[in-house]
């Protein structure tokens, strides 16, 4: 395939993925916005009014970046995991594998589709947050950059999950038992400076902590960890997961029996 054909194939796959989740928007876009609205009401208004300030900001302002990032993470991941596994289950992925389309285009197409849903939900949650607080972005370029990188990272993770899954239940194991605990322990609702020294060190092993803190720094200008280290860690995770996903796809791992 030449460059033009490759671009057309990639664009077609991305559009197909976007149409897939927008066609069923009451299941893919509406529930996250309702869930986050509940978080804003319960944690931000009811509990936050009793907590007071966190790192010099109202508790509502403090948790808004974390909740936006949480919605981006879960939706980027789940979109690719469910979409690619459905293609694998229906064996339609085999048609893509035998086509002239390069494997990296298949991988990139699903990742970009997952990113589109994650970022779309992130925008919706941001709009919802405006009903509860006033958002001021201290570093706009950094904020946009880190949310795009995070969406790419977890979309890639969802692709690997779909490759490894053998039944539909398998694609819910990682989000339930790994992703959700790491997200809640990733500094979404608190600053790790409140933790004892041991648990602060343990928290540094949580990759989601880096993403939440960089995103919060983009909004508020405060972070529990050095922003440069966090960005380097995110980029490292993306490169590593993309390489693993592409290797698995090229070798038919999870596809060929």
Automatic annotation (TrEMBL):
List the residue ranges forming a coiled coil, or say none.
Answer: none
| Main localization of the protein described in the UniProt heading | membrane
Q: Where in the cell is it found?
A: Cell inner membrane; Membrane
Please list the GO terms describing molecular function: ABC-type transporter activity
UniProt-recorded name of the protein: Transport permease protein
Q: List, alphabetically, the GO terms of the cellular component aspect.
A: ATP-binding cassette (ABC) transporter complex
| Signal peptide segment | none
Protein family membership: Belongs to the ABC-2 integral membrane protein family.
Cross-referenced PROSITE patterns: ABC_TM2 (PS51012)
Q: Which domain of life is it from?
A: Bacteria
A Pfam entry, by short name: ABC2_membrane
> Keywords in UniProt for this one?
Cell membrane, Membrane, Transmembrane, Transmembrane helix, Transport
Cell membrane among the record's keywords?
yes
Domain ABC transmembrane type-2, by residue range, is 23-252
Q: Which organism is it from?
A: Halomonas caseinilytica
**What is the topology of this protein in the membrane according to its UniProt annotation?**
Multi-pass membrane protein
Tell me where the transmembrane regions lie: 29-47, 62-85, 105-132, 138-164, 176-199, 227-249
């Amino acid at each position: 395939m030449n460059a033009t054909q490759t671009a057309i194939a990639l664009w077609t796959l991305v559009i197909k993925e976007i149409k897939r989740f927008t066609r069923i928007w009451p299941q893919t876009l509406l529930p996250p916005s309702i869930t986050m609205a509940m978080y804003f009401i319960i944690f931000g208004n009811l509990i936050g009014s009793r907590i007071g300030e966190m790192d010099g900001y109202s508790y509502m302002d403090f948790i808004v970046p974390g909740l936006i990032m949480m919605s981006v993470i879960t939706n980027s991941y789940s979109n690719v995991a469910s979409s690619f596994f459905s293609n694998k289950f229906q064996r339609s992925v085999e048609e893509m594998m035998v086509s002239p389309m390069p494997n990296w285009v298949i991988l990139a197409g699903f990742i970009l589709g997952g990113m589109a849903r994650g970022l779309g939900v992130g925008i919706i949650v941001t709009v919802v947050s405006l009903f509860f607080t006033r958002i001021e972005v201290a570093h706009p370029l950094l904020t946009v950059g880190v949310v795009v990188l995070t969406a790419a990272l977890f979309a890639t993770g969802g692709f690997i999950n779909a490759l490894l899954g053998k039944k539909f239940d398998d694609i819910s194991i990682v989000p339930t038992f790994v992703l959700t605990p790491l997200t809640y322990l990733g500094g979404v609702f608190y600053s790790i400076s409140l933790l004892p020294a041991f648990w602060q060190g343990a928290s540094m092993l949580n990759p989601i902590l880096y993403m939440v803190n960089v995103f919060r720094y983009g909004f508020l200008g405060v972070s529990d960890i050095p922003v440069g280290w966090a960005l380097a860690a995110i980029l490292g995770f993306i490169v590593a997961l993309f390489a693993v996903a592409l290797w698995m796809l090229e070798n038919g791992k999870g596809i060929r029996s």
